[in-house]
UniProtKB/TrEMBL annotation:
Keywords: Dioxygenase, Iron, Membrane, Metal-binding, Oxidoreductase, Transmembrane, Transmembrane helix, Vitamin C
Keyword Transmembrane: yes
Ranges where the Fe2OG dioxygenase domain occurs: 278-379
Pfam families xref list: 2OG-FeII_Oxy, DIOX_N
Protein's name according to its UniProt entry: Flavanone 3-dioxygenase 3-like
Family statement drawn from the similarity comment of this UniProt entry: Belongs to the iron/ascorbate-dependent oxidoreductase family.
Segments traversing the membrane: 67-94
Record PANTHER family: OXOGLUTARATE/IRON-DEPENDENT DIOXYGENASE
Organism name: Senna tora
Length: 435
């Protein structure tokens, strides 16, 4: 059975109705403190340490951040032409204008612009990073209409950074086409065996869930891609190519992010290099159909992802995360072109609890189908993950038992993960860690 069977119903079947204590609040506040990390600044010698520090704070506080595709505008300015007008523009006018256009990120954004302004004033040749969101276009338009002759802009060019928008669009299109197929076609890939490398299903774990989630999904192993791609859907005919291109691109991004996160922990960026290279990747392609009673059910129940990192692409808002400071849910704002990065259980264990995996859930809505593609990255199937010895000492004793991806699969095939998270079974009691 899948959610397609429920299309057109005016109330949700009892099987999907959550007990009142687990029902979502669809009006929780939108997070205004979600860090935005500019990955392009990693390549900038003077900005790199600050970016690593920003990632460290993001991981410590939330286990969660968003990365954006940036447009770089390189502006050449002859410093001797900098005058009061340019100073006013970079320090006051631009930050103020950005704040007005981007309410959720106002603080970050103006700080960010000020940082740009600083480096422009310091160097005669510099980069100005502009976020590619709706408000940026207006900022950008402004940059064009600004009389640069006063600042002697001699040249600029634009480069897209990160995963190409067309790769992202293609992957989402392939997902939509797959879920639009006749039910019999999709059911060929149906399985409730969590060990199957490619499987179509509904809810979280159909065989175990007492209450079903309002979600259909296809999960597919994706790395090394040549080992698995022949098992992916052959229909729609372009699925393998489009989803495959996205899988490869997102994996490269994950490798870069993993290195940065290790560095932010004070570890060598190449820590566990072999395990990272040989690690597995699972794409969870999710479809949340429109729901007549979204306040009674959830697309995915609260959980943390098992792996090291998850990179999430989504077509509209719906993701909520639990704020660790007060235990309240907050809604993750949707930004076109943005990718959400979440830390998983493996990273919590590896960091010996310095970083925590993020608890999240997906809500559904009555207006429009929502799609998401979660790229879940794990170390190898049988690689035993332990807290990094460098992060264990007298003051911070080993806090987790070792485990592997295979151990996790064994756990979810036997347990309802909404009742107890796998990571909670790994936490060591103080006397255990002394042994
Ligand atoms: O669709 C979402 O927003 C979340 C998906 C998710 O958490 C998952 O696939 O593990
Ligand atoms: Fe998840």
């Amino acid at each position: 059975m899948s959610l397609e069977d429920q299309l057109g119903v005016s109330s949700i079947p009892q099987r999907y109705v959550l007990p009142p204590s687990q029902r979502p609040d669809l009006h929780v506040p939108i997070s205004t403190t979600l860090p935005i990390i500019d990955l392009s600044s990693l390549n900038h010698h003077s900005l790199r340490p600050q970016t690593i520090q920003d990632i460290r704070m993001a991981c410590k506080n939330n286990g969660f951040f968003q990365v954006y595709i940036y447009i770089y505008i390189y502006i050449y300015i002859h410093t001797y032409y900098l005058n009061a007008c340019t100073f006013f523009f970079f320090f006051f006018w631009l930050p103020a204008r950005c704040s007005r256009h981007c309410l959720d990120y106002s603080g970050l954004h103006s700080r960010y612009q000020v940082k740009c302004a600083h480096s422009i004033l310091r160097n005669s040749t510099t980069k100005c990073y502009i976020k590619k969101t709706e408000h940026v276009y207006s900022t950008w338009e402004f940059l064009f209409s600004f009389d640069f002759s006063k600042a002697h802009v001699t040249s600029f060019w634009i480069i897209n950074h990160g995963i190409d928008q067309s790769t992202i669009n293609d992957a989402l299109e392939a997902a939509k086409e797959f879920f639009n197929l006749p039910q019999e076609e999709k059911m060929r890939l149906f399985s409730d065996d969590v060990h199957k490398p490619v499987r179509y299903g509904t809810s979280l774990n159909q065989a175990k869930d007492e209450v079903y989630c309002w979600r259909d999904f296809i999960k597919q192993y994706s790395h090394p891609i040549s080992d698995w791609i022949h098992m992916w859907p052959s229909n729609p005919p372009t699925y393998k190519e489009k989803m495959g291109n996205y899988a490869k691109a997102v994996r490269l991004l994950q490798m870069q992010l993993t290195q940065i996160i290790f560095e932010s922990l004070g570890l060598n960026p190449n820590y566990l290099q072999e395990e990272v290279n040989e690690g597995s990747q699972v794409l969870a392609v999710n479809c949340y159909p429109t729901c007549p009673e979204p306040d009674l059910t959830l697309g995915i129940l609260p959980h943390s992802d098992f792996g090291s990192l998850t990179i999430l692409l989504q077509t509209r808002s719906g993701l909520q995360i639990k704020d660790k400071s007060d235990g309240n849910w907050v809604s993750v704002p949707f930004v076109e072109g943005g990718l959400v990065v979440q830390l998983g259980d493996e990273m919590e264990v590896l960091s010996n609890g310095q970083y925590k995996s993020v608890i999240h859930r997906a809500t559904v809505n009555g207006e429009e189908k929502r799609f998401s593609i979660a790229s879940l990255h794990n170390f190898g199937m049988d690689t035993k993950i332990v807290p990094a010895p460098e992060l264990v000492d007298e003051k911070n004793p080993k806090a987790y038992k070792e485990f592997s991806f295979r151990d996790f699969l064994g756990y979810i095939s036997r347990h309802d993960v909404s009742k107890q998270r796998f990571i909670d079974t790994l936490k060591m009691k103080p006397f255990e860690s002394r042994n």
